[in-house]
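TL;DR need structure tokens for one chain.
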Amino acid sequence: MTQEIIIAGFGGQGVLSMGKIMAYSGVMQDMEVSWMPSYGPEMRGGTANVTVILSNERISSPILQTFDTAIILNQQSMDKFEEKIKPGGTLIYDSNGIFNLPTRKDINIYHIPAAKEAGKIGNIKTFNMIVLGGFLKIFPIVEMDNVIKGLKKSLPERHHKLIPMNEEAIKRGLGVVETIQTV
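>> reply
TL;DR here they are.
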């Protein structure tokens, strides 16, 4: 089993950290893992994406042209990556800031209202963990215990007090996934 994922959005949305947590979670589960970030010099507000590969087999290359799954968090990323999803693959998106919804008919499409849910929680910084929870609902590729271990590994120790809040956000994400289309 191999899952080739692109997570794309604006810097500051937690794109890179979500990918890092996925990668660490895979490592904790003894999977082969690749984590390859890409971002502009402007960081917050600029575009950012990360490619994550989780596999039970050796990974031949971390460089991908197409993806099994795209997690899209802004319109620029939708425009750039929707066409790069393999037929039969999956697109996951948060509609906040996306004006042109996905149009492909040969992929699975899921909506996660993460910005709305983060607003309900009262902490927008939980946005990426809600998205991660939604992804894990669709693809339970790593176990929750390993996700928590991945959180501990990727967050600086001074932020470990936030782990329970992040865990709660992940669980919230598990419950808010909306299926738009399956093929």
